[in-house]
Design brief:
The chain has about 375 residues and is of the alpha/beta class. The chain is built from twelve helices and 14 strands. The protein binds ligand FNR.
């Protein structure tokens, strides 16, 4: 049998297959409290070996976009309970993704219209965020210029992740994924081109730039267990104005080594394709060799490529993003060789059931036809 459909022991959590649903923001939670529609959407996709929920902000300050859910208030915890129940009833497993956007935000989504926070007061050039226009209507606007965090504010951010991780467990999640990828707060700290701070959280020292992520991983693992703490990263990502920087490969290899020593549940690479293109195959192999634990890899996978990377040992689990949007029964389709439906980018973010819960499973689509 193809490895894709073999079960997997994720530090005591039994996964029915090696297909992961990648975390995907869908911006359909206007109140920040997940509801019945959210539960229906995730329940439909419970055939995945593991679902990673969409980014959930750990505090109001952490929020970068309108209509994204949170994990910092009791109403949100109650809302997520419906989601985790819907997945568990169908035999699935689900982690929450814990998110702080840093500077990728417009001040209209921040409390009291404050500036978003970042390692340094440098705006993300050419980056849009989803906020309120001056006339009060929602829209895409250039990310605001952030303010640099004071050194003594930084432990509060770690504390917010810990509180959100505890909330996630209370809400019934099987674990959490710390969102260290895609140009958001942790990557802003790790990036040596951007983070020119002169305190213990920045500057030329790799240890300093990794400190926020590692302190947060340690604190979350202490609170809920390292076996329930995953970490997502995107080495050599250029999205959201992340510049190339000197010592980039050394930085990421040091990150892997430091994370490996902490034995989190898994490491998750969000950008296989751009990492391969920007860093080269040699770096990817060194990265894999430095990681002894479970590695999840995402980025433009199809069935064949996924099987190849599982067989070669590059990945232990493969995450699919967009294919899960339009194929709620993606695992069955891959197993049976049924055709895949294309996802419509026009309905990725915002709106209601259309483009969210109305993509049929293959067998349903045959019945309607
Ligand atoms: C994403 N991605 C993403 N990543 C993440 O870590 N947290 C998130 O909330 C989101 N949100 C999100 C929304 C949408 C609509 C898309 C398409 C993507 C990235 C995603 O997890 C994945 O890494 C990429 O989509 C690459 O995988 P695919 O889509 O090529 O299989």
């Amino acid at each position: 049998m193809s490895k894709l459909f073999q079960d997997y022991d994720l530090r005591g959590l039994k996964l029915r297959n090696r297909i992961v649903m990648a975390p995907m923001t869908r911006s359909r939670v206007p109140s920040t409290v997940p509801d019945a529609l959210t539960a229906e959407y995730y329940g439909q996709r419970a055939g995945a070996g593991l679902i990673i929920g969409e980014g959930a902000q750990v505090s109001e300050q952490a929020r970068g976009y309108l209509f994204t859910p949170g994990l910092h208030a009791s109403a949100q915890v109650q809302g997520w309970k419906g989601v985790t129940a819907a997945v568990h009833e169908r035999g699935g497993a689900i982690f929450a993704q814990l998110w702080h956007v840093g500077r990728v935000a417009h001040c209209s989504v921040q409390p009291f219209d404050r500036k978003p926070v970042a390692p340094v007061a440098v705006a993300a050039a050419g980056v849009n965020a989803y906020g309120y226009r001056e006339d009060g209507t929602p829209g895409q606007m250039p990310a605001s210029k952030p303010r640099a965090l004071d050194t003594d504010e930084i432990p509060k951010i770690t504390a917010d992740f810990v509180a959100a991780a505890r909330n996630a467990i209370e809400a019934g999640f099987d674990g959490v994924e710390i969102h260290g990828a895609n140009g958001y707060l942790f990557e802003q700290f790790i990036n040596g081109g951007l983070n020119t701070r002169d305190d213990r959280y920045g500057g030329p020292s790799i240890d300093n730039r990794l400190r926020l992520l590692l302190e947060t991983v340690d604190a979350v693992a202490e609170a809920i267990g390292s076996h329930r703490t995953g970490v997502r990263v995107s080495p050599f990502n250029r999205g959201f104005d992340m510049p190339a920087f000197e010592g980039e490969a050394e930085t990421w290899l040091a990150a892997v080594k430091a994370l490996a020593a902490r034995e989190p549940a898994y490491l998750h690479i969000s950008n296989r394709d751009s990492m391969m293109a920007n860093a080269g195959k040699d770096f990817v192999q060194r990265f894999r060799a430095a990681w002894p634990g479970t590695l999840i890899v995402a980025g433009r996978y199809g069935k064949e490529h996924a099987e190849r990377d599982l067989e070669s040992g590059l990945a232990d689990l493969v995450a699919f993003g967009r294919p899960f949007i339009s194929n709620p029964d993606l695992v069955d389709r891959l197993r049976n060789g049924w055709p895949l439906a294309e996802a419509d980018p026009a309905t990725f973010y915002g709106g209601g059931a259309a483009g969210y819960t109305d993509y049929p499973a293959w067998e349903e689509s045959l019945e309607t036809a």
